[in-house]
């Protein structure tokens, strides 16, 4: 087959777009090591903004909250999302035919709508004081769909007869799940967990509405910093967060190479 | 994908049915409670009155239901709200168009690269997208700051494009990757030039990718409030900002709910259009 390679202009255009994607972030990283309070010109190398960051108790508390919320929310979302994924793939019958709508709509709609409707619900119906619990519930709600999509994609490629064979051999539904289904979908489940972990730790919009005044997460803290003043400390926390996300992606790619591809 | 009617769906015994409910009930109940109920509550709240101290006025006044179309009338009676909706649509349209123009060459290049190289090129698209949303917006505060472009509509669009670009690149790439190179070769053998081949073959075949990418960019942009707030000026506010204002600052929940319902309606209409238009037509290939 003759494949003439791509023309030069295509390479140039694509490189320009890659530059557009990376340059702004590169500038954030570079200025995080700049020995100046202004993000304007290069003065000299320093790591002091990282020192400032590590001494910033509010920021550390926010980071702790984010981590706690992300772990708990994504564990619960993984369990519920896996159940939803299995149900959508296995039983598209009766009332359950409406399940994909319920599971996928929160993923597809603008985040602000989920945020304000949950705010309304928590305050008006449950009379809940906004805080950790409301944030956890909100994060679980938007993560379930992502886990379910990944798990369903994983199940969709499988031969149903394996499950029938297990049943014919006398396995109970639980044994079938534990010994057959779960090992097969595990890469998808892990990818789903990592995905909802990342979504949770990154979420700003929905958390913004349901957090109330008592509890801050890392994105909320970053937001209030940016709103007030732009300081190199924001660059430092951004750089650290990028490093963290990159390691998580590397980990996910290593743990579940094909699970991740089933993500969209 | 081999679709087989799921085993046991027809001849399900009691155990099978029990399993089905045990598995599907927890996520269903959770989402009914925390997604559907809040959505319906918001719909109801859009017909109610604001309370004296924010929130909602009592539902029953003198034994009568205190519901009305007041907030909808208010919305349609004031040109300013329509203007903000219109502006949001324009910003979303501009963002979608710019994303399309930027994404197409990149997606085309990736789709036409060697198989081994494709994964790396796709990963390079996803990586910056994995950094926190606020960090990506913040980057533009630094980039545009020195040029006096901050707090302008231009800054808002730059931020919107930057944050949503991967949503356009990925579906486009997924579509372009499936094209059969033999079609282009045949066209070339028949004497079609590069532009003609693009216009007559690649572009029409990629319409489903363009539609799904456009929906994935247009819809979130429509509801965005953080980018106008951080990069835009006071006159650049969009529907998202208006909604946020009603819920957090003015505490006029009925108006906020009405605006949210109108946004929902717009989103549903757009999604329906995109799904319909993006359906691959038979016989065009």
UniProtKB/TrEMBL annotation, chain A:
Q: Name one GO cellular component term.
A: plasma membrane
Residue stretches spanning the membrane: 9-33, 67-87, 99-122, 128-151, 180-198, 204-222, 234-256
Signal peptide coordinates: none
The membrane topology term of the UniProt record is:
Multi-pass membrane protein
Q: Key word Transmembrane helix present in the record? A: yes
| Record-linked Pfam families | BPD_transp_1
Cellular compartments annotated = Cell membrane
Organism annotation: Candidatus Accumulibacter adjunctus
Any idea which UniProt keywords this protein has? Cell membrane, Membrane, Transmembrane, Transmembrane helix, Transport
Any idea what this protein is called? Inner membrane ABC transporter permease protein YdcV
Which family does the record assign? Belongs to the binding-protein-dependent transport system permease family. CysTW subfamily.
Q: Where is the ABC transmembrane type-1 domain?
A: 63-252
Q: Which gene encodes it?
A: ydcV
Q: Which GO terms describe its biological process?
A: transmembrane transport
Cross-referenced CDD domains: TM_PBP2
From TrEMBL, chain B:
The signal peptide, as residue positions, is: none
Q: Which residues form the ABC transmembrane type-1 domain?
A: 85-274
Superkingdom as given in the UniProt entry: Bacteria
Please state where this protein is localized: Cell membrane
Q: Biological process (GO) annotations? A: transmembrane transport
Give the matching InterPro entries.
MetI-like, MetI-like_sf
This protein's name? Spermidine/putrescine transport system permease protein PotB
């Amino acid at each position: 087959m003759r494949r003439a390679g791509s023309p030069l202009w295509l390479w140039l255009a694509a490189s320009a777009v890659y530059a557009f994607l990376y340059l702004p972030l590169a500038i954030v990283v570079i200025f995080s090591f700049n020995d100046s309070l202004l993000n304007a010109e290069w003065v000299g190398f320093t790591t002091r903004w990282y020192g400032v960051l590590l001494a910033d108790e509010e920021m550390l508390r926010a980071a702790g909250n984010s981590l706690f919320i992300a772990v708990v929310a994504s564990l619960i979302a993984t369990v519920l999302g896996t159940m939803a994924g299995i149900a959508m793939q296995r039983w598209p019958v009766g009332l359950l035919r409406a399940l994909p709508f319920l599971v996928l709509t929160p993923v597809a709609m603008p985040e602000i709508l989920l945020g304000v409707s949950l705010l309304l619900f928590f305050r008006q119906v449950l009379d809940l004081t906004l805080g950790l619990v409301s944030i956890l519930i909100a994060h679980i709600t938007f993560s379930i769909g992502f886990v379910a999509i990944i798990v369903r994609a994983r199940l969709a490629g499988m031969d149903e007869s394996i499950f029938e064979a297990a049943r014919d051999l006398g396995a109970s539904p639980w044994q079938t799940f534990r010994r057959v289904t779960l090992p097969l979908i595990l890469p998808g489940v892990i990818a789903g967990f990592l995905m909802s972990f990342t979504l949770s730790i990154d979420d700003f919009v929905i958390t913004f509405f349901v957090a109330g005044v008592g509890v801050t997460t890392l994105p909320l803290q970053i937001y209030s910093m940016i709103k007030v003043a732009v300081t190199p400390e924001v660059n430092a926390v951004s750089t650290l967060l990028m490093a963290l996300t990159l390691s998580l992606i590397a980990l996910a790619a290593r743990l579940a190479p094909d699970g991740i591809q089933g993500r969209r | 994908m081999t679709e087989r009617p799921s085993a046991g769906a027809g001849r399900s015994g009691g155990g099978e049915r029990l399993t089905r409910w045990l598995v599907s009930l927890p996520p269903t109940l959770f989402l009914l409670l925390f997604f559907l109920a809040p959505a319906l509550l918001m719909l109801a709240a859009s017909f109610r009155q604001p309370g004296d101290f924010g929130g909602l006025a009592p539902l029953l006044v003198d034994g009568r239901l205190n519901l009305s179309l007041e907030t909808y009338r208010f919305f349609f009676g004031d040109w300013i709200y329509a203007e903000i909706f219109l502006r949001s649509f324009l910003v979303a349209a501009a963002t979608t168009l710019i994303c399309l123009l930027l994404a197409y060459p990149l997606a085309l290049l990736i789709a036409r690269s060697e198989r081994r190289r494709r994964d790396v090129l796709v990963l390079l698209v996803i990586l910056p997208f994995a950094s926190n949303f606020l960090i990506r917006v913040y980057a533009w505060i630094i980039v545009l700051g020195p040029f006096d472009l901050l707090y302008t509509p231009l800054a808002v669009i730059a931020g919107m494009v930057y944050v949503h670009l991967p949503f356009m690149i990925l579906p486009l790439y997924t579509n372009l990757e499936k094209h059969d190179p033999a079609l282009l070769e045949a066209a070339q053998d028949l004497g079609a030039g590069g532009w003609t081949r693009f216009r007559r073959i690649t572009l029409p075949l990629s319409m489903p990718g363009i539609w799904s990418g456009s929906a994935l960019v247009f819809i979130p942009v429509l509801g965005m409030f953080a980018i106008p707030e951080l990069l835009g000026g006071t006159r650049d506010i969009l529907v998202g900002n208006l909604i946020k204002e009603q819920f957090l600052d003015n505490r006029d929940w009925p108006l906020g709910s009405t605006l949210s319902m109108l946004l929902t309606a717009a989103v549903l209409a757009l999604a329906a259009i995109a799904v319909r238009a993006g359906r691959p037509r038979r016989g065009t290939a």
